[in-house]
Automatic annotation (TrEMBL):
InterPro entries xrefs: 6-PGluconate_DH-like_C_sf, NAD(P)-bd_dom_sf, PDH_C, PDH_N, Preph/Arog_dehydrog, Prephen_DH
Protein origin, superkingdom: Bacteria
Protein name, UniProt field: Prephenate/arogenate dehydrogenase family protein
PANTHER family: PREPHENATE DEHYDROGENASE, PREPHENATE DEHYDROGENASE [NADP(+)]
Taxonomic classification: Bacteria, Pseudomonadati, Pseudomonadota, Alphaproteobacteria, Sphingomonadales
Span of domain Prephenate/arogenate dehydrogenase: 5-293
């Protein structure tokens, strides 16, 4: 039996459109309604037939839903939740896909005190945005983290878990605060570093304009992919997960200073030991099949 039969998706960009495509592929009998604040996105969603119905307002999209998923930047979640409050059926479960969780969980609970709230974060994505960037296999073999708030009905959590499993994801549950700490180091800090290094290189480019592009092999090239990620989405993530990001940034800065000292004093052993440790981390990720070097990752479109 399907966990839900009428799903509403608010925000039809990369993640919302991927959820729509994945629902179509894995649960073809589910009735899908969608809405996006941007009329152009609604037009594209209509043309791509991502949903059975594209509504002109968030409220109109949710009137009949048993699951509502907010797929908007985390800074917009509170406003969208307030927008749907009057039209939301009492038994509808509300979820989201935001990259940070504590502020999102708080905003959803505050705006929708009478509904079951099961915040979620599919740890899967690309540097691209918009409805045309999505694809149905995005969640295959990827983690989806659920961060239910205290007092949530376990049945609601189990149904959202079954939903993500049906889309091909593996599901784990943790508190919103723990999620934000873990993701600060595994996702948010790496994005911040990529934005910084590409920004620094782009400043240097004034001096060595053509060389930065010409010789952007290896490491720098990989950073430019991450640094091409959506500005609105990432602005919101850093503002929403401020405390955890600042804590991890503090630790990172201390470690960077230690590395700086090792280079200055010619401490080759310190450098060699660290690089040996980090190589082992990469190899264990690859062994567990969690690396993005799989042939289909981020490239398959349907
Ligand atoms: N991009 C990625 O790789 C991943 C993103 N996420 C999370 O997914 C969420 C969506 O991100 P993407 O799909 O990548 O962004 P996107 O930019 O591709 O799509 C977001 C859509 O939300 C719409 N929107 C913005 N404010 C709205 C509002 N008030 N009402 C209705 N629609 C609104 C925009 O018009 C846009 O079409 C974010 O919270 C992000 O943190 C989660 C996992 C991966
Ligand atoms: O493109 C990449 O490498 C990503 O890291 C995608 C991504 C971005 C944000 C998330 O919350 C989860 C995954």
């Amino acid at each position: 039996m399907l966990p839900f039969s009428r799903v509403a998706i608010i925000g039809l960009g990369l993640i919302g459109s991927s959820v729509a495509r994945a629902v179509r592929q894995h649960m073809p009998t589910v009735r899908l309604t969608g809405h996006d604040a941007d009329p152009q996105v609604r037009g594209v969603a209509d043309r791509l037939q991502l949903c059975d119905d594209i509504a002109d307002s968030a409220g109109a999209a949710v009137t009949d839903a048993d699951l509502v998923i907010l797929c908007v930047p985390v800074g917009a979640v509170g406003a969208v939740a307030s927008e749907i409050a009057d039209d939301l059926p009492a038994d509808a479960i509300v979820s989201d896909v935001g990259s940070s969780k504590a502020s999102v969980a708080a905003a959803l609970s505050a705006a929708l005190p009478n509904n079951q709230i099961v915040p979620a974060h599919p740890v899967a994505g690309t540097e691209n945005s918009g409805p045309e960037a999505g694809f149905s296999t995005l969640f295959h073999g990827r983690w989806c983290i659920l961060t239910p708030v205290e007092g949530t009905d376990p049945t609601a959590v189990a149904r959202v878990q079954a939903f993500w499993r049906a889309l091909g994801a593996e599901v784990e549950t943790m508190t919103p605060e723990h999620h934000d700490l873990v993701l600060a180091v595994t996702s948010h800090l790496p994005h911040l570093i990529a934005y910084t290094i590409v920004g620094t290189a782009s400043d240097l480019e004034q001096v060595t304009r053509s060389e930065v592009i010409k010789f952007s092999a290896g490491g720098f090239r990989d950073f430019t992919r991450i640094a091409a990620s959506d500005p609105t989405m990432w602005r919101d993530v850093f503002l929403a997960n401020k405390d955890a990001v600042l804590e991890m940034l503090q630790r990172f800065t201390e470690d960077l200073t230690a590395l700086q000292r090792a280079i200055r004093w010619g401490d080759g052993d310190a450098l060699f030991d660290l690089f040996t440790r980090t190589r082992a981390v990469r190899r264990s990720i690859v062994e567990q099949g969690q690396d993005d070097a799989r042939p289909d990752f981020g490239r398959a479109h349907d």
